[in-house]
Write a structure and sequence with these properties.
This protein is mainly α and 500 residues long. 53% of the residues lie in helices and 6% in strands. The protein contains 21 helices and 4 strands. The chain has a 4-stranded antiparallel sheet with strand order 2-1-3-4. Strand 1 and strand 2 form a beta hairpin. Helix 9 runs parallel beside helix 17 and helix 18 packs across helix 20. The chain starts with a helix and ends in an 11-residue tail after the last strand. 42% of the residues are buried.
Length: 500
């Protein structure tokens, strides 16, 4: 019975739905930004100093991929994607579509910070690799009129409901993990609605419905109600796995949540909403309208193939549980920590004592993310690169200075914040516990100083009138003021090799 849940919980994906889903997802991934299908453009706008390839690419010896190679992979991926939509050479084209997209997604992830807007597409394409539908397919058409071979028989386990069942588990996990992150990282702020109000205020310039944004930010009670609704929907998402009666209402509520976010905040989860199409039994849903009875559920195939698919399902579910417990952010998984900090206002954000920097850095380096806060919006930063003027004036934040000058920032802000945070943690953890400050006379070059020396030539090239500034400094904010942990002279022309 446990095996058959994976194959019977949802009906197989019919050919028409396969074609509609693949086609719509391709269009969304072509127009949505940032997208793995535009990874060539993303990588071209990211300097190697700020690029962080995921562990799976590093294990393969890949630390950088040139844009022409990405454009080639993108073209091939789109071609096999179209073939998968048409039902040609199933399931090979489905698997190749996933592999091409996964490679582009992995490369892209090293330049996007913690962005998870297309993780659902990655998971959906993986699941579709285990789905074959001979109706409404070129495979079936060619087989009827020629000697075209069907690579998978009509009684194969790949014609079962395994693909949508696996996707249901993954998408329900994604929502549930988002709720857990809010409780884990910012329970007090999400409990009283102040965290949601803070993020709404920061997102107000990008709100698509400004009037609704103003209405919510002006009403603490409304923010509190919306925050609790969000928590209930996210933490209750797992109910969709176990209850077929609650599944459709929950899916509709998830879509409503995404639409609400779309109206008043920056993220647009069109791709994730599109993936929900595979979780709905459209034939049964349409039967009252068409007058035709819904077909009885077909028994899932037995045998070794069914056991193998069930084992894959359980292994994937176990991996998701491990990611959730360990707070892992190793591609291709995520524990969905975005927008989870319980921040009320930037001024009231608690900053660590200077004496705790080393201990916190060591904990964070071991994967305990709560020890060192992550910034999901600019106002939450706890470390940054400052540019110090020659005349001794107030130092300027590098990313903002470049943006104000109207020049390139050579990296997206979310990736910039991720790299600066990781560098600060690595640097402070490597230093003696009581001396996190930069010491130019020690003779040892710590990670943050090495990093700033790689950034200095980028700043000289990108910043008009850079001669007005003397140095770059990486600082950590503490409750007693900024601590400078690294420094590099802007005029220094030494070439620093990246750490291996």
């Amino acid at each position: 019975m446990i095996t058959h849940w994976w194959l019977d919980a949802l009906p197989p994906i019919p050919g028409v739905l396969r074609a509609v889903f693949y086609t719509g997802l391709l269009v969304l991934c072509l127009v949505d930004q940032p997208s793995p299908l535009s990874s060539a453009r993303t990588i071209a706008g990211t300097e190697p100093a700020f690029y962080t390839p995921p562990a799976v690419l590093r294990a393969l010896g890949i630390r950088w991929v040139r844009p022409p190679v990405l454009r080639l992979v993108t073209g091939v991926t789109v071609a096999v994607w179209a073939a998968a939509a048409l039902g040609l050479l199933q399931p090979v084209t489905g698997a190749l579509t996933f592999l091409g997209f996964a490679f582009l997604h992995a490369v892209n992830s090293g330049a996007l910070g913690a962005n998870h807007s297309t993780h659902s597409a990655l998971y959906a394409l993986l699941c579709m690799s285990f789905s074959v539908s001979h109706d409404f397919s070129l495979d079936a058409l060619l087989a009827r009129h020629t000697d075209w071979p069907l690579l998978v028989g009509e009684d194969s386990v790949l014609t079962s409901g395994f693909a949508p069942s696996l996707l249901l588990v993954v998408l329900a996990y994604t929502l549930f993990a988002g709720g857990v992150a809010k409780v884990r990282y910012g329970w007090s702020g999400w409990r009283d609605g102040s965290a949601l109000r803070f993020y709404l205020e920061q997102s107000a310039p990008a709100a698509r419905w400004p009037w609704l944004s103003r209405l919510m930010t002006g009403s603490p009670a409304l923010c509190r109600a919306a925050a609790w609704t969000t928590l209930v929907l996210e933490l209750g998402a797992v109910a969709a796995i176990f209850s077929s009666d609650l599944r459709l209402p929950l899916i509709l509520s998830w879509a409503a949540l995404h639409i609400g976010i779309l109206c008043v905040m920056m993220p647009a989860y069109w791709v994730q909403m599109w993936c929900y199409l595979l979780l709905v039994d459209w034939v049964r849903l349409a039967s009252p309208l068409t007058g035709s009875p819904s077909p009885p559920a077909a028994a899932a195939p037995d045998g070794a193939g069914a056991d193998v698919l069930a084992a894959i399902g359980w292994l994937f579910a176990a991996a998701l549980l491990y990611v959730l417990v360990t707070e892992s952010e190793q591609w291709p998984f995520t524990s969905v920590p975005m927008y989870s900090n319980g921040t009320r206002t930037a001024d009231s954000m608690p900053l660590p004592p200077r004496s705790e920097l080393h201990a916190r850095a060591v904990c964070a380096a071991r994967g305990r993310h709560r020890a060192w806060q992550r910034a999901w919006v600019d106002q939450e930063y706890t470390e940054d690169i400052m540019v110090r003027p020659v005349d001794g004036g107030e130092p300027r934040r590098l990313f903002h200075l470049l943006a104000e000058e109207g020049t390139t920032t050579f990296v997206r802000w979310s990736q910039y914040a991720k790299v600066v945070r990781g560098t600060a943690i690595e640097d402070v953890a490597a230093k003696p516990p009581d001396r996190p400050e930069y010491d130019g006379g020690s003779g040892r070059v710590y990670p943050a100083t090495r990093f700033l020396r790689r950034v200095a030539p980028l700043v000289r090239e990108a910043l008009p009138g850079w001669e007005r500034y003397s140095a770059l400094e990486l600082v950590c904010r503490t409750d007693t003021g900024d601590v400078v942990i690294a420094r590099a002279d802007l005029a220094d022309t030494r070439v620093e090799e990246p750490a291996q």
